[in-house]
Amino acid sequence: MEINKEVYSTVHHLIERCKDGVKGYKTAAEDVEDQDLKDLFRKYAVQRDSMITELQDQLHKMGKMDDESSSIEGTLHRAWIDIKAALSSKDRKRILEECERGEDYAVKAYEEAVQKNLPGELKPIVEQQYQDVKNAHDHIRSLRDNA
């Protein structure tokens, strides 16, 4: 199946936002002191990792490789850039605010993606991932509100 540039760039953008999430959540999980957040952030890092795999599998089926130039080792996206400072403050509410801010970018990317005319299996996968990202965002927000 042939893949057009718009579909490719949409999927690539989602992969990048998921990579941001993996990096952000891994960083947060390593440095946060609250065990409940440590476990939650690890869970979300793993979730994003498997979302990346799903999206890359879809690209492979369409005969495309994901451009790995901005790999997991890359720099943190600006959405997650303040997570280090928040973590060093040990302030639970601030840490959750930074995670929520990182998630805002992912939610926005998925909101745009689900509006597009995605082919075949890609559409339901992206829709499911959008729900997962939105649920994570809302969960982080409710934890922040109660911090």
UniProtKB/TrEMBL annotation:
Cross-referenced NCBIfam families: PA2169 family four-helix-bundle protein
Cross-referenced InterPro entries: CHP02284, DUF2383, Ferritin-like, Ferritin-like_SF, UCP029477
Name under which the protein is recorded: Uncharacterized protein (TIGR02284 family)
Highest rank taxon of the organism: Bacteria
Domain (DUF2383): residue spans on this chain: 9-116
Organism from which the protein derives: Pontibacter virosus
